[in-house]
Fold these 4 entries.
Entry 1:
Amino acid sequence: MTVMTVLGPVHADDLGTTLPHEHVFIDLVREYRGDGLLNDRALAVAELREYVDAGGRTLVDCTSIGLARDPLALASVARETGLHIVMGCGYYRDPYLPPELDTMSVDAVADTIVRDIEEGADGTGVRAGVIGEIGSDRGHLSALEERSFRAAARAHHRTGLTITTHAARWPVGIPQLDLLAEERVDPRRVVVGHCDMVPDPSYHLEVAGRGAFVELDTVQGESEYETQCRVAWVRNLAEHGFLDRVLLSQDVCLRSNLRALGGPGYAYVPTVFAERLRAAGFADSDVRTILVDTPPRALTGE
C-alpha cells in the first residue's frame, strides 16, 4: 500500500515518524494579518530540517483550496529536506470558500478534487495524497460547507483517499461525521481535526467510538495547563481502548508558530511532547503507535 507524496508514491511502511496536520505555505492574512502568511521558502526549509534532525520522515500539509496552496514549492522543499510531504486538496471552510463554489453542483466540485488527486493540482502534475483539510467555522456546517463535504465524500469514493477535517472550538466533528455518513463514507477513513480545541473528553471518545481518528493537532506547549490537558486526553483515549485512533500534530500555520520566531516549530511533538507522554507513564511502544504506526493507517485505511 502506498501514499502519494508531492514527489510520487511512497510505501506506507516507509513513512516513519509522521506529523498528520501541518502547513508549510499558507495564507491566513484575512484573519491573522501578517502573522498568517507563511511564504518564506528559506525559513520553511530551516524549520523543517529541525524536524528531520529530530527523526521526522513525513509531514501531511493540509493546505487546501482557499489557503494559497503551492504544489511546486512543496515539491521543491521536499527535495531539499528529504521529507515525504503529503499534499491536501478539497475546499477549506467559510469564509475561504471561493464564490464559484456556489454555482457548481456537488459532482462538479468533486470533479475538481479528483483532478487534483489523479492529474495534479493547478496544472502542476503534483498530486494530492489526502482530501482536506475541509471544515466548518462554527458549530454547524453552512450550505457551502455542506456542498464541500458532500463533494469530498464523492471524491473519496472515486479515489480511495482519506478525508481530514477542520473542526475547531465547537464539537462540530459529530455533525461532520453524520453528513459524511449520509454519503456512505466509512468513519474509519475520516480524521476529525482540532479535537484538542474542544476541551471535552466525552467528545473525543464519541469521535473515536464512531471509528474516526481523533486528531489532537494543536499540541504546541503554549502553557503548562494546555500541555497537561493534552496528556490527560491522550491517557483518557488510551484507557478506553482508543490509543490506535489518536493522532498528534502541531498545526503550524502562523509565523509565530515557527521556532525561529518563538513558537514550537515542527519538532515539538516528536521531541518535547513525546517525552511528556513517557514521563506520564506511556511506554515507548505507545509513543511509536501514535507517531509511526497510526498515521499510515489513517492515510491508507489499512
Entry 2:
Amino acid sequence: MNEQGHVLVIGGANLDVIGQPEVPLVAGSSTPGRIHTSMGGVARNIAANLAQLDVETVLLTAVGDDEAGASLLGRAAGRGIDISEALVVEGAATGAYIGLLDANGTLNVAIDDMGVLVHLSPAYLQARIHLFEAARMVVVDANPASESLQVIVELCRRFAIPLCADPTSASLAGKLAPHLTSIHMISPNVRETYALCGHAFETHDAQAARQAARALVGLGVNLAVITLGEHGVVYADIETAGYIPAVKTEIVNLTGAGDAMTAAIIFGLLEGIPVDECVRLGVTAATLTLRTRETVRSDLNVDLLYDELVI
C-alpha cells in the first residue's frame, strides 16, 4: 500500500429520512413518532468519517442539480472531502433513502431511490483514471452498476491498489460476489454475508458467523468483518479469526453506525495497525455513532476513538 496519496471513495450520496415510532407500528395506519432528515449514503458516510479522522479523501458520486444535491456536496466539502470530481446530473433527482424503524430503533423497512448513480458509468470512471493511479486505497459501496464495479476492480488491479467494499444492502451485495478475489476488506452484515457466500446463520451465533468470515477469506477476501448488530462483530483474515462483543450503550440512531465502523477499520489498515485493533477501532466508532442523531458524528476524531477504545 502506498503511504502517500488519497483514499478514493466511490458510491452513493443521498438524503436520509428516518422515521421512528413512539409506540408499536400499526399496518395501514399512521403512527405517532419522530422523523429526522440528514445527509447520508454509504460512500458519503464513509468518506465523511475518514475525513473526520484526518484521512485525505476524494469522493466520486452523482447527485441531481437540485437543492438536496447542492447541500450534500456543500456539506461534504465543508468536512474536508474533495468533491471536485463529483457529478451533478442536469435534470436528475438526488438519491434518497427512507427508513422506518421499530420503537426500539431497529430498522423495520426501507426504500432507496438511487437511480442517479447510473451516471457513475464506466466512461465516467475511466476519465478519472488519474484518481485511481494516485490513490493509496479505494473504497466502494455496492450502488454502482455491475459494469462500473468491474471497471473499478480492473483499475485497482492495474495500479495495485487495495480495494475495500461495503455491501450496502442484501439486495445489492451480490454484485460484489464475483469480485471477492480482488477485495482487500469487506464488511457485510448477516443478510449481506448470505448474498456474498451463501452462509446462513442467526445474528446471535458468533461461531457460525466466524465460519462465514473464514469462508469469505477462502473465496479471496483478505479481511472479512461481519457485523452482528447487538451481538457484536466477528472477523477473519488468512492468519486469524476473532470476535468482539457489542458495547451496551444508549442507541439514539442506528443509521450510519456500520459506515463509521467501516471507516475506522480502513483508518487502522492505512496506519498499519494490527487487525484486532483495527476492528476494535471500528466497533468503537460504531458505538460512538449510535449515541448521536447524526449519521456521521461531527466530533469524531482519532483521540476520541482511543479515549473510548473497546477493550
Entry 3:
Amino acid sequence: MQVIAGRYELHRRIGAGGMGAVWLAFDRKVDDWVAVKLLAQRESAGLLRFVREQSLRIEHPHVVAPRGWAADDDQVALSMDLVRGGSLATLVGDHGPLPEPYVAVIVDQLLDALAAVHSHGVIHRDVTPHNVLLEPTGERRPFARLSDFGVAALLDGPRLTEHGAAVGTVGYAAPEQLARTDPDPRSDLYGLGILGRHLLTALPPDHLDGASDGPLWDVLCALSDNDIHRRPVSAVAARAFVAPHLPSGMPWAHDPDAPCVFEHLTVPRELRPQTRVALPRPARPAPVSRKPAERDTPES
C-alpha cells in the first residue's frame, strides 16, 4: 500500500480521469474514504491544472469538487468525494436506453450543476457519460454528480491547457471547442445535449441524428445545436425548457426492466486501514472546586 504525504492511503485503482489514475484511498486527515487522482509532478502543465482544480471548491450537491490535496516527492494527490454508484457510461452499458422521465431528471440535475459551475466563472468543457457519477439510489430517482474538472477553463483567467489547443472528448466537444475559440458556458450545454440524447438511445454521438423524436428529444437537440447562438443562453434558461418534462414521481418503477443504480465501490473489510492517525483532542479543564465561598465576618 502506498501512502502519499503521510495522508492518503492508496488501496486500489478505480479509474482514470482527464489527468491521471483515480484511486480508492483513505484520507487519514479526515478519517474517511475518498477518491484520489494521482499525477506526477514532472508534468508541469498538469500540476498547474491540479492546483487550479483545488481552487474550484464549488459547493453543490450535484458537483464533485476537489476537497484536499497533498504532494510527496514526484507525485501530487487530489482528493474528491467517493461516489459509489458508477458513471452514466456504466449505467447505459448495463441497461441500454433509459426511460425519458429518468433522463429528464438527470439532465435537470446536471443543468443545475452547470448553473453553479458557470456562476463561479468556470467552464467544464468535458460533459460526458464517464464524467457524470451516480450515487447508488437503486430504482429510485437518480442522483447525478458532475465530476472531473481536469480540462476546465476560467472565463477570466489563465487557460489550464496549452493556448489554442482543442479540448474535450470527440463527439461531446462543441464545434467552437474544436475550433479552439475562447471558452463559453454554452459549450457545456452542447455536451449535455449530446449526453442526454445518448442516454435516450444508447447510441454513440455520431449516430444520433434522426435516432429518436419527442418533446424532450427536441429540447436536447436545441441544447446541442451546432450553432452556439441557437442554444439556450444559459443553464438556468435551459432548465426552464426541461421543467415540463420532469416526472412528479417515478413512472419507470413499474417497468420490469427499470434502471437500477447499485453500489459499485464497496470497501471490503480487508481494505479497511489497520491504523488511523488520531486527531488531537483538547485537554480537559481541571475540575472546579465546589467548596462554598467563605463569607466575610462583620466586624464587631
Entry 4:
Amino acid sequence: MQQNLIEKVFGPGGLISQHHENYEHRPGQIKMAEAIAGAFEAKRHLIVEAGTGTGKTLAYLIPAIAASLGRKKRIVISTGTKNLQEQLMEKDIPFLQKILPKKFSAAYMKGRSNYACFYRVKKSRTPADPGWP
C-alpha cells in the first residue's frame, strides 16, 4: 500500500474525515498505518506500541484489508479481549465496509475460552483418564 493510499484514507479530507463526525488528524495513526503497510509489503513481522487515542484499530485494519484484497488472501487478526473483537465486528469493520471503495467481508470466532485445543483437553483430563487424549 503506497503512502498515497494511507493519506487518502487517514489524511485531512480523506475517507475517514469525510464519513466520521469525530475525525481527528492523528499523525501517530498515519505513522502506524504506514509501518503496518510496509510490513505487509515486505512480508515481515512488526510489533507496534501506541497509546490510547492513537486510533490503533483503524491503523491496522486499513493496511490489513488492503493487503488481503491485493493478494486475494485472508488476514487473521487476533485480539486479547472479546470486547475488542466485538468493537472490530460491530463498529470498526462495518464503518470501513461503508466507506472503502472495494468491498470485503469479515468473520470472527470468539476467543480462546470458546474452543477446544489440545492444551485445554489435556488440562481437563482427570487421573481416571490415563490414555486421554
